[in-house]
Design brief:
With about 200 residues, the chain is mostly helical. The protein is built from ten helices and no strands.
Length: about 200
Amino acid sequence: MFTMEELINNKANINEIELVKISDKLWEIGNLEEIKEQVGPNLFYLHIAINIIGNWKTEGWWGIICEQAGLVPYIPEALNKLGLPELKVAFESVITIFPEYTIFDPNNSTYCDIVNFFQNTRFKVQDKRLSCIAQAKRKEMVNQVQRNLDKLESLTEPFFSENSERNGWKQVLDYINKNIINNNERHKYARARQNTKLDEI
């Protein structure tokens, strides 16, 4: 099982290029479910965080929801681990408007319908569960998604934009430092305890 420490040998030299390389290496394993099974949880959520920020910089949140839907179920916990609870709440306020039967998979035909449903009230949808919703209700739902998205984007800008600290990667770098330092401290403590037991023998 891959760990964060194995992929990050020198955290002092970590930058955006190195973060992308780490994520690319993990994508070589397979899809997100396969990655989750083969890496430690800290490394898995680092992978999610890198993809959130990288995709947000080019596509924004709606682009992530539409084109990177597989990330969506993991985003709230990733934001929580990055120490961004306000963004977590704002993101969930968008996603909770989606139907309960939503499967976050861009290759799912129903998901494409759901995205079109919220994208524009003029877009036609095939799913009968969506097409039977009155136009006035649909307009209300679309407007609610847009308002919540606007708030989410506004909250995100100070953290992930190119003009923010460390070009938008500060939270990820802090997460790396925190987890590597904590793991190193645990290893030191375990070694110290082991040495103490050996001295007592």
